[in-house]
Design goal:
Layout (H helix, E strand, L loop, with lengths): L7 H13 L3 H8 L3 H8 L7 H11 L3 H19 L11 H4 L2 H5 L9
């Protein structure tokens, strides 16, 4: 991603609260959360949790994945651009990742949930 994705709080503020003339206080009441929690999200100091995504999707007739994806894209862009340390991780050779040994060993697999 080249440019920084829009934070979900900006979407809430600019696409919903302002056009609908809803205050942060009133929106917090609608969502059943504190004004402080919503204010943090709008000011990019808080993140959209799965619970918040469900609340927003219900209030605005959107999908919860819409809100979670906005947050995920924003967080991933920040992680990719705020630090270069992740680039020091060595890649595991592809022949090791897809060898017959890795397919047949149950003890090396992550547990399924």
């Amino acid at each position: 991603m080249k440019r920084q994705p829009t934070h979900p709080g900006t979407i809430i503020k600019e696409d919903y609260l302002e056009p609908l003339s809803i205050t942060i206080t009133n929106m917090a009441k609608i969502l059943g959360i504190s004004r402080k929690t919503l204010s943090k999200i709008i000011n990019k100091k808080g993140a959209i949790t799965p619970d918040m995504a469900l609340r927003l999707s219900r209030a605005f007739n959107t999908s919860s994945l819409f809100w979670l994806n906005l947050q995920r894209n924003y967080d991933l862009w920040l992680a990719e651009n705020s630090s270069q340390e992740w680039k020091t991780v060595k890649q595991i050779p592809i022949h090791l990742l897809h060898s017959d040994n890795s397919k047949n060993s149950d003890r090396d697999r992550a547990p399924h949930h």
